# Entry
Amino acid sequence: MPGDDSCNIDDRHLFRATMATTNSNSGDFDAIIVGAGFAGLYMLHRLRKMGMSVQVFEAGSGVGGTWYWNRYPGARCDAESLVYSYSFDEDLEQEWEWTERYATQGEILKYAEHVAERFDLNRDIEFNARVTAAHFDSEQKRWGVSTDQGHQVTGRYCIMATGCLSTPQVPQIAGLAQFQGPTYYASQWPHDDPDFAGRTVGIVGTGSSAIQAIPVIADKAKHLTVFQRTANFSVPAYNQDLDPEFVKDFKAHYPEHRVKHRLGLVSSFGGLELPEAQQGVAAMSADDYTEEEMQLILEDYWQVGGARFLSAFGDVIMDKRTNRIVAEFVHNKIRSIVKDPEVAELLCPKTHPIGTKRICVDSDYYATFNRDNVTLVDVRSSPIKTITATGLDTESASYSFDDLVLATGFDAMTGTLLKMDIRGADGTRLADKWYAGPKAYLGLVSAGFPNLFLITGPGSPSVLSNMLVSIEQHVDWLCDLFEHMAQQNQAVVDAEPEAEERWINHVNEVAHSTLYPEGGSWYLGANIPGKPRVFMPYAAGVGAYREICDKVAYEGYSGFSFPEATQA
Ligand code: NAP
# Structure
């Protein structure tokens, strides 16, 4: 297959410490990867090219991670398809045909499946196997990993490619089990899509998932009742079929586009690209403009659509005045779209600065509330009391429906990691070390958990970036580290506690120089009762972060320790 034949033979000789035993429930590997989403697939591909024996465990029955699970109606990526894709293989990038500006969940899943087939990845993936525990054996210097299917394997490196939004939040609403009709979680949608035609549906939640699902469900259902606790800012996607000429031109310049994304040279520091015409404007402070000029600029961005709307002014997440003007612009858009003024006011987000919760990207979300078959219920002023057999009761009224949809979000960034029983060098549980919030040097390695790596972990740009850009950066950086270790005859790498502490302080400092902490978002853990309130992603952007990681590597992996030489 294209792309797989360029293996560097010298690299292969670096990794022959382990003989893998495959096709059984046990075995010893150079590396164990948890998760076969985009991070796990690329990690597997790279490690295999380095000659390592690798075992991947995946809880789902197929590859794709978030795109395997999140099949709710209307699910699409809110990053544009041409940039939400791997850059590591030129043939793949040129040959794969995206059909729409924003790819559907189905198309992205097909892409992940294609990548797995193209690079022959499936043979090293054990599907339907959820990792339950990972313990570091300090004598053997190996991780022991167990699954719910009885696998017990060991490996030198253990790589958590578990995704940031992979543990659904079961909302703490009384009576959830009493509902007698079907209950659907947006994040675990059934593979045989339910038909809502002629049915009444209630949906709890108005985050990105619900904002995509609501217009599609409303189009089918007899009636849809939307239970909103917090209104969210959403920008029109203006999704459309991709113009072949645009695609041809974009593909002809893929290398330049990719470099811009990796270095954060385009003004959106998350690694998403602005149209050429807008690149000069963004990153500028709103101080350079009058309010009237700002309205014109915002209108331009609104007309282009997408999450890049937030890039109109570089200081929107830093400066309260800018933020207020941008938020009010969206409020006025909502008021102009939604005919009932009371409903429009309820839909105007007023509880958080714009951008401090993940901005949503929609197709006809606000206009859906003009439909006769859609009702908006404010469960902030009158909270949900209980789910009943036939619907739900708020503190002021009862509602009934045939189907219940819960689009109630995720225990983000740490939920999946902490569900596993992960124990480090001295037996400490990761959950205990992270009781006050996640701690990992560069968001990659948590001190005391040697040879355990977190792809797009807390403390890295992660969910504030184009995930594909961040995944590739982490995987490539780790492969360089592994090569360095092999060359230096090092078996074990750990983070130095002081370096980790300094990094965590820096991540916090950056976060607190912005308005993010005011958002009450899942970035902060604020959506999960009892979760420590710590701003988890690194907010300085992918370019700055990459520079730091590269400098660390250049300095011989400063902040990391290499306590053990390779065992024979
Ligand atoms: P979310 O943004 O966390 O939204 C969850 C919603 O459920 C919120 O409106 C929340 O209200 C509500 N909720 C939770 N518990 C509730 C309760 N007990 N009673 C009433 N309401 C309750 O989750 P999400 O929509 O799944 O999105 C999560 C993230 O996934 C996004 O921010 C995005 O990063 C990613 N995502 C991306 C895409 C895309 O690329 N297009 C699509 C979907 C999701 P409160 O805000 O009041 O807590």
